[in-house]
Amino acid sequence: MGIMDTSVPFRGEAMPLNKRYHTPNMERLAKQGMKFTNAYAQPVCTPTRTSLLTGMNTARTHITNWTSPNKNEPTDAKDEQFGPLNWNINGLSNTPQTENTVYATTFPQLLKNAGYYTIHVGKAHWGSMGTPGSNPYNLGFMVNIAGHSAGHPQSYLSEQRYGNLPGKAQAQAVPDLQEYYNTGTFLTEALTLEAKKAMETPIARKEPFYLNLAHYAVHVPLMADKRFVQRYYDAGLDSAEARYASMIEGMDKSLGDIMDFLKAKGIAENTIIVFMSDNGGLDAHGRGGPVNTHNYPFRSGKGSVYEGGIREPMLVKWPGVTKPQSTNANPVIIDDFFPTILDWAGIRNNKTIQKLDGISLVPTLKNPAVKLTERPLVFHYPNKWTNEKEKDEQLLGINYYSALRYGQWKLIYRMRNQELELYDLSKDISEKNNLAAANPAETKKLAGILGKTLKERGAQMPVASSTSKPVPFPDEVTIR
Amino acid sequence: MGIMDTSVPFRGEAMPLNKRYHTPNMERLAKQGMKFTNAYAQPVCTPTRTSLLTGMNTARTHITNWTSPNKNEPTDAKDEQFGPLNWNINGLSNTPQTENTVYATTFPQLLKNAGYYTIHVGKAHWGSMGTPGSNPYNLGFMVNIAGHSAGHPQSYLSEQRYGNLPGKAQAQAVPDLQEYYNTGTFLTEALTLEAKKAMETPIARKEPFYLNLAHYAVHVPLMADKRFVQRYYDAGLDSAEARYASMIEGMDKSLGDIMDFLKAKGIAENTIIVFMSDNGGLDAHGRGGPVNTHNYPFRSGKGSVYEGGIREPMLVKWPGVTKPQSTNANPVIIDDFFPTILDWAGIRNNKTIQKLDGISLVPTLKNPAVKLTERPLVFHYPNKWTNEKEKDEQLLGINYYSALRYGQWKLIYRMRNQELELYDLSKDISEKNNLAAANPAETKKLAGILGKTLKERGAQMPVASSTSKPVPFPDEVTIR
């Protein structure tokens, strides 16, 4: 889901896409809490999801692309310029020396250790089959419903048993939902019902709990959520766009149901709600309409280091603390969730295997006027997501890119030709005007920060097949 | 698993089958606890499993045959004499008015309500897909691993992903075990590892817990547990028998691992262990060797109301209460588990939807010399399990039978021809000498008890296709 896939305007005034989508419950949450207008994830899902659980930036996890459900199976598209990168293709692990994984402590484990009742419902996609990370129980969750190694559902439809039709099931068939087979329950709804059911236990026991409700929607396959799709056909959307919009609204309905549930249980005022996505909105790749329009005014979409691929619709309701209907413009990133959540839970001086890259957002949640220390937010994608036309690859910022958000600035590093681009997001939210040539000093400074940060975090760079040499870090290239 | 599928002699002296099987951990449990030599289940699994959870006899649940994973799909073989029976083919439900189910309160739900941490691992098989009973979360469990609507695994092998091979998976593919795919972990071992993992949480939190570890072994498909199979080939067993024996030993290893785990955690002396099976040992139907030998000296096996089909290897270790290496000869039945477990947990005056048929075994566990009140133990199978030859059907006591255990006596009611058989189990454990003709008074008395009990419990009887009349209850037939 992207930042524009909602009727909540994250860009100040309502834009055309805000009018297209209907997310009344996100509006409700925004009214009750704080809207982050500069919140970031990574360009695709697994890197974001593993950074969420570990507090590490992807440059450090070496999980820079989505992981296959199959162990030791790289997901990068074949490339003529670069050879295969030896990244952590099996994802995250709680067990040392699991091949091709990052070994780290997860915050759900720390919450669990502290007495929280930890529930995962929905998409997990933290590790490949045959490794511990495929099982949420190994990552600190006490309850897991429907989470496994796959990143999308084989089907959203109960009539197709969410993929589990005899002789048809693939690795993406969604587990644990037999109760709903052939009941007409869309996957999003089934997950919501299961989440509510799972919360009953800690609520009845007056135990603190953490629910990780990770909807499969709006990932492909784009399938109509029939409860909502007609509205979008009526509005003139094409089939793909209507299906996509219906999936957004189904997900939003889930948010509302959870909010209603918390209220009915009398714990709404004692429960923090965070809304976040794990990559930008899908652009092209099955969407209807022209390319580079689906996150307008943001450039590109999922897979890209341009804003459309990484900027997210983040909302936080911290009852009694976040001011209703407030806005926070601090640049924040998924790496920040780990320390923030532990901070909320009062878990201090915890020991983690890994070094954290995120910072706690508690001070700025308490007061959005508190400016977070200026710091590099790093996006690193030394991988090949899709086979794009050369022209589109560059237009969309997809495959072999790093990027830096630093204050008002955005630096893009294209590894293919080792070019740098510079954008002033305070004036150019659409990243149209590359200022690198006009402002070589700022470009050089930012390239230095990005290069240094990537090296500190042990980032991997792609290796040219012709020379067997890695691409230089961005601080090592000539400013053209 | 049958009563003879173990090296623990449940018949006093060791019999040939006790020498065939190797179950050192059952021996260890028997040494530490109490062996029940007259413990009963129903002839097939779902009836037993649903009686376990509800405390109701199958005559009352109307779950008298195994349930299909598919909703509203009867599993009875077609018959010329009798039409289809309208039994609860979708199993057990926690929700009223679920079609073709019995609506009841489960003891795990009552344990959960009382603060127990309730875990299910392995075979569930309590309800069909598309109904609440397919999901152990609806039956009182907080954690479910690998349990769903199917009664057997598609595969025991990690190399076959326990059935989840792309394009090959059927309804019996085992969920939730992706972590073990292609690791060489036999299903029994994977379930054991998951059970230990799940127990860590309540142990760390010092919460009381209930673990329902329900191995899929030794259900078909009979697949070699490679850790143990060679011993049985070396002993000269044929392939089917060697595979079966290896699955028994793998299951026994699991018991030992759980016992070791409890000891290592320091809670062995504060944890009750119950070992039980859900039907008699499989006889014929894929087993090697001649029919009617697999539970020797007991007659027949799974599917039958003769002793080989219903008598089980039950062991209970109640630390500090059950005398080590003690034996209890009281006839007991799976219906008794519900009140016994609640008694153990100190849960009194609980409200259940259903009327219970079982009684608490606590008094006789405390002192095996305490004789339980003489009472009818009822086995009711107004269904057709398999297409047997007419001769074998009668020899084996399979299809359309009821039976009564009452004191030393066993009454068999064959619905096909409305014949009664009487056996004195104190002298004739193999049910070879039918005393009905020689002892019509006892036969009549027992037929009266069985008929009365069946009627009290609202038992269903098969309906003859030719006359549309139900088979008379056993107290209504002429003693021949």
From TrEMBL, chains A, B:
The keyword Hydrolase applies. Residues 459-480 are annotated as: Disordered. Residues 20-347 form the Sulfatase N-terminal domain. Pfam families: Sulfatase (PF00884). Keywords: Calcium, Hydrolase, Metal-binding, Signal. Belongs to the sulfatase family. This is Arylsulfatase A.
